[in-house]
Amino acid sequence: MLFRKASSLTVLIILLSSPLFAQETAPLEETPDFTTVSTGFGDILAASNVQVKMRDETTIALDIYRPAGNTSYSTLYAAGPFPHGIDMLTDTETAAGPVAWYVSQGYAVVVANVRGTGASGGDFAFFSREEQQDHYEIIEWIADQPWSDGKVAGTGAGYYAASQWQMAIQNPPHLACIAPINGTLDPFREWISPGGLSNNAFTNDWYDRKVRLANAYSADTPRLVNYDMRLAQLLHQGFDDYWRIRSSVENTQQINVPVFAIHDWSLARTQPGLNSTLRALDKLNVVNKILITDPAADTPLYQDTPLLAQELLPYYDWCFNGRPPDSSFIEVPRIRYLAKGQNTLKRESNWPPGNVRHEAWFLNNTPDGNNNSLATLNGQQDPGSLEISTFSSAENAARIRFVSAPLAQNLEIAGPLMLELYIASAFADAAFEVILHEEIRPQAPLTTVSRLPSFIAAPMQTNEAQPGADIEDLIIQDVMVSMGMLKASSRARDEQQSTEFSPQYALDGKQTLQPGQVTRLDIAMRQTSYRFSAGNRLILDIVPVNDGSIPETKATELVYHSRRYPSRLWLPVARVRQQATPIPLETAAPPAIQTDLQTDAEADRQQTEPELEDVRQFFVPR
After folding, report:
1. pLDDT score, position 461
2. How far is it, in rounded angstroms, from Cα 153 to Cα 163?
3. Helix, strand, coil percentages for the chain (3-state, nearest 5)
4. φ, ψ of residue 431 in degrees (nearest 5)
5. Distance (Å, whole) CA 194 – CA 345
6. Most buried of the four, 65, 107, 390, 467, by CB within 10 Å?
7. How far apart are CA 88 and CA 105, in angstroms?
8. Count of structural domains, the chain
9. Element at 359 (helix H, strand E)
10. Residue of 77, 83, 203 whose CA lies nearest to 136
11. Is 437 helix (H, G, I), strand (E, B) or coil?
12. Domain carrying residue 264
């Protein structure tokens, strides 16, 4: 459950995180040279690559944008490793947000190149302690400028969002609030090594392309960024002090400014999930709220000006103007989330919602009498199920696909998902990715369907036609709902940070497999809210994966699903509330209605751990 509580910090974390409060920013040697720039939102005063000295004489380059005139303004501050110049005013992709639009709303905007990027001095080191301390000094420098009214707020998405959490932990006196969008507080677990596997999409796509190549080929400030992220990962394969410095989760209770986080349900590998943000909000003792929505098809969330006008502007107005208790922002519930599949915005005071209980969907593999078997996903174990499933290769990709029967009624989930999986391998390690889909089967020819939801993936042709429908008019849609991954040797939980169905992996050592013995893996999947519609099917894919750290096994692993080894998918199923009245803010949610199915599932979940079993006889010698 999402609840507020403070956790103790170790002396090490305090020492690594504390800013250098006693050291002041060196004064700027000359006044920034502002020029007038015409934009679609009117004239803007801009100053590029303004150099500000830090405590160690390193200079940080700032781009400053403000409304035309001599008035002082509240300032939005963003800091990241991306090169930028005056073209940021027309860049509809920058994660700093719609800078020119923000200025048109009456704010100054300051965008910093962190150390070792753009025109800034020093060396880039991916959220280094020095980089984090720079935010304190820059914010205080901004507050001292004649065009600033002394009030600063964080802004931006991705890296910019992670930087906001780090600046807030230091509590610069003139920081009013932060508003991280699609951010992370745990870069190692959510970006670098989710589930103990190297996230090559992040390293290769995000870092190499958006940071190193972008800086090298910058038209204004070309430079080589020497930081080797791959080498850092190889040198620090576990969550050690190196990554602990770069994590903000354990320090969030130090924050004394309001937080309004915005996130979407994206499953992109270069975007973090919600875990660290939700854990951080739990620890805060200040006003904190979150909006979780669906990824937009055309406009990134952080560039969606109608959404930002509706959500962020009231928040910034509240932050900068004395935080009045009767503002429209204060009236907003603490948690709002889009329930995908029904496109309904729901309101809660805690996460997961109070009407959610986890239910088990069992993996089965039932013989059909013709020397074939059918891998199914059921609400109960099939007594006739085979004990073991093996991976078969389809289109050069090994996987096992478990498919449910068509749903008799809608199924709504909200919260953390987890696959309890029993496997055996002939080798000392293995890794798996699991993906949950909804298979949408139209009940009528497509020509009679007015419009399919925007979140549905590209259609696939099917040969199954409903009565009275033309085959060519029917399609089956496959919607990805959630996914997760885990390397078996990284399966150890951090018990202090984990909940029953939301494991947090310690990632501080390796637990190798005993070849040929059954081992339980609890695979955390991305939290979500989704409604599966009646008549559709649930599909669970289990895929062996390899990030290069595991010997090639050619999918010799076995998946177990039996009474002794009950592999099962735990879904956070939403129940009908006992009361139809809204839940007041800051109060506990009412208890959910209990059902026999839920009671049985909990009883199964609490059974003792199965013993290891020698299954070497099932493997073909290499």
Report:
1. 34
2. 12
3. 20, 30, 50
4. -145, 150
5. 29
6. 65
7. 17
8. 2
9. strand 356-367
10. 77
11. strand
12. 11-332
Is residue 276 located within the same domain as residue 414?
A: no
Contact assessment for residue 441 and residue 476, using Cβ atoms and an 8 Å cutoff: yes
Q: How far apart are alpha carbons 115 and 164 in whole angstroms?
A: 16
Residue 435 is assigned to a structural domain of this protein: yes
Mark whether 323 and 368 lie in a shared domain: no
Confidence of residue 231 (pLDDT cuts 50, 70, 90): very high
Q: Check if the beta carbon of residue 178 is closer than 8 Å to that of residue 259.
A: yes
For residue 562, being part of any structural domain is answered with: yes
Question: Are residues 231 and 368 both part of a single domain?
Answer: no
Handedness of CA 270, 273, 278, 279 (dihedral sign): negative
Q: How far apart are CA 43 and CA 527, in angstroms?
A: 43
Do 320 and 418 belong to one domain? no
Structure confidence at residue 71 (pLDDT): 92
Q: Is residue 337, in this structure, part of any structural domain at all?
A: no
CA–CA separation, 203 vs 314, rounded Å?
36
Block residue for tokens 């089965």: 364
- Report whether 66 contacts 111 (CB < 8 A): no
Residues 444 and 470: their CA atoms lie apart, in Å, by: 9
d(CA 438, CA 339): 14
| Residue 316 and residue 371 in one domain | no
Coil, strand or helix: which one is 298? Answer: coil
**Whole-number mean pLDDT of the chain?**
84
Q: What is the CATH number of the domain that holds 161?
A: 3.40.50.1820
For residues 282 and 363, state if they share a domain.
no
DSSP SS3 for 331: coil
**Residue 404 three-state SS:** coil
User: Which pLDDT tens digit goes with each residue over 515-562?
Assistant: 999 999 999 999 999 999 999 999 999 999 999 888 776 667 899 999
28 and 171 together in one domain: yes
Tell me if residue 414 falls in helix, strand or coil: strand
- Identify which has the larger pLDDT, 50 or 397: 50
Instruction: Please give the Cα distance from 415 to 430 (Å, whole number).
Output: 27
Q: How far is CA 346 from CA 152, 332, 453, in A?
A: 31, 12, 18
Quick one: which of 570, 165, 497, 502 has its CA closest to 351? Answer: 502
Alpha helices in 284-379 (DSSP H): 305-320
pLDDT tens digits for 278-297?
999 999 999 999 999 988 77
- Same domain, yes or no, for 402 and 295? no
Q: How confident is the model at residue 512 (pLDDT cuts 50, 70, 90)?
A: very high
